[in-house]
Write a structure and sequence with these properties.
The strands form four sheets. The protein has a seven-stranded mixed β-sheet with strand order 12-11-10-9-13-14-17, with helices on both faces. The protein has two domains: 2-91, Elongation Factor Tu (Ef-tu), domain 3 (Beta Barrel), CATH 2.40.30; 102-262, Rossmann fold, CATH 3.40.50. It has helices spanning 24-29, 70-77, 112-124, 144-150, 169-179, 195-205, 241-244, 255-262, 266-280, and strands spanning 2-12, 15-22, 35-39, 47-50, 53-55, 60-66, 83-84, 86-91, 102-108, 128-135, 153-158, 165-166, 186-192, 211-215, 231-234, 237-240, 247-249. It is globular and about 60 Å long. It is of the alpha/beta class. It starts with a strand and ends in a 13-residue tail after the last helix.
Length: 293
């Protein structure tokens, strides 16, 4: 089992939390873009989370997650000193690293965490990194200081204008690519965030002919390519996020199919969360037994 050595809460509604987990073997091998799969308890499900940071000296892996369902809610209840039953990784293909020149990295919401890890490695390879980070409101922004520490230039947006520039990250992306059209310095765009954001990040960069990578968060079960649950369509062909990804050419991803598949179990997830809340409240109806939630 893997011990939680640090925990922080970044926001409460929705709840966004950070955990630093003791996992020395993973910390030594993990690279930007890769993910872990964890299981909180014997009766829990497996969930994938992209690695946000590593510290080889401390032997730790950092994850950032939002409590959106039963499993992330259970994970969020754990405290420093508690242990996670299963913590497996690193999984997936790492971001291909090279000296690209200038890279535009776009992070939305929880996507800020994995983008940070990628930027850090891009800088090690001599790249100039321009970062756009956005959220719905200022309360949901985090790690601005960490992003500024590893980026050459940072732009911050909020949908409601409560901090930074009001509007979407794609508006800034459009302006930066327009300004770079003649210089041709930006040779790569990396976008990580909600699927709808990544879809339009890719659409914005496509007319400029700039290669664009996105990190997909499809439904995942075994994370070995055996179950096929994480399949996505890229360039008209079926790919598996857990072994072929999680990063793909954003101009080739069928985002509409991805988002449709992500909604497949919304009713079951909603019911599971309802049962969990009843269980926590001490409900005696008999319908919230641990094995059922």
């Amino acid at each position: 089992m893997n011990r939680i050595i640090a925990k922080a809460e970044y926001s409460r509604d929705p709840a966004v939390k950070m955990m630093e987990i003791e996992a020395p073997a993973i910390a030594r091998k993990a690279k930007g873009g890769q993910f872990i799969v964890l299981r909180v308890s014997e009766t829990g499900e497996r969930i994938p989370l992209t690695i946000a940071d590593t510290d080889v000296d401390r032997g730790t892996v950092t994850i950032v997650f939002q409590e959106v369902g039963k499993t992330t809610a259970d994970l969020g209840r754990l405290e420093e000193g508690d242990e996670i039953l299963d913590f497996i990784g690193p999984l997936g293909q790492p971001t291909h690293m090279d000296n690209y020149g200038a890279v535009l990295c776009i992070a939305g919401g929880i996507g800020i965490a994995p983008v940070h890890n990628i930027i850090r490695e891009l800088k090690r390879h001599g790249n100039r990194v321009i970062t756009i980070m956005g959220a719905r409101t200022q309360d949901l922004l985090f790690w601005e200081d960490k992003m500024r520490a590893v980026s050459d230039e940072v732009h911050v947006t909020t949908d409601d204008g409560s901090y930074g520039r009001k509007g979407l990250v794609t508006a800034v992306e459009q302006e930066l690519l327009e300004a770079d059209r003649d210089a041709r310095d930006i040779s790569l765009v990396i976008g990580i965030g909600p699927p709808i954001m990544m879809k339009f990040v890719a659409k914005t960069s496509e007319p400029f002919g700039v290669k664009t990578l996105v990190s997909l968060n499809s439904i995942m079960v075994d994370a070995t390519g055996m179950c096929g649950a994480c399949r996505v369509t890229v360039g008209g062909k079926t790919r598996f996020v857990c072994v072929d990804g999680p990063e793909f050419d954003g101009h080739q991803v069928d985002f509409d199919e991805l988002m449709q598949r992500q909604r497949m179990y919304l009713e079951q997830e909603k019911r599971s969360m309802e049962l969990l809340l009843q269980h926590r409240a001490g409900c005696d109806c008999g319908g919230c037994r641990q094995e059922e939630i």
